[in-house]
Amino acid sequence: MSNWRVYLSGEIHTDWRERIVDGVKALDLPVEFSAPVTDHSASDDCGAVILGGEDRKFWYDHKGAKVNAIRTRTLIEKADIVVVRFGDQYKQWNAAFDAGYASALGKSLIVVHDPSLTHPLKEVDGAALAVAETSEQVAEILKYVILGQLDR
After folding, report:
1. Which of 61, 29, 67, 38 is nearest to 149 (CA)?
2. CB 3.0 to 4.6 Å from 12: which of 16, 38, 56, 132, for a disulfide?
3. What is the tens place of the pLDDT at every residue in 7-45?
4. What are the DSSP calls for the chain, one per residue?
5. CA–CA distance, 142 with 31 (Å, rounded to integer)
6. Whole-model pTM above 0.90?
7. How far is CA 108 from CA 21, 83, 90, 96, in A?
8. Torsion of CA 20, 121, 44, 136, to 10 degrees
């Protein structure tokens, strides 16, 4: 059985990614994970550090966003499944963009968020094939779709 490629997008301030990876390892599933750069300052500063500083914040952010998009676009395009997690602490426009991009590419999309975010994320949830509340649910979804096994 070949490996499934799963891209983990979204909030970077909790351990949700590690919980999915650990759950998948415990289930011994054939999955390769990828993700955006989760070092917040590196992600913010990459464009200006690599390509040269900017006096205006718009252009500073613009350079960084484009450099980060090289990674994000490439890995989402290669993914079989895209998982996007929305936390409740920050407005995650980049996560919403990733979900929309994945949906536009016809990728299987799993969205993860607290029930309190159901209303603001209704359009994103509408594009998803599954909406989960926990990382553990995502690991179980991956088990089911990869192995066809359902624990009752």
Report:
1. 29
2. 38
3. 999 998 899 999 999 999 999 999 999 999 999 999 999
4. -PPEEEEEEE--SSSHHHHHHHHHHHHT--EEEE-----HHHHHHHHHHHH---SSHHHHHHHHHHHHHHHHHHHHHH-SEEEEEE-SSS--HHHHHHHHHHHHTT-EEEEEE-GGGTTTTHHHHHH-SEEESSHHHHHHHHHHHHH-----
5. 9
6. yes
7. 18, 9, 25, 15
8. -10
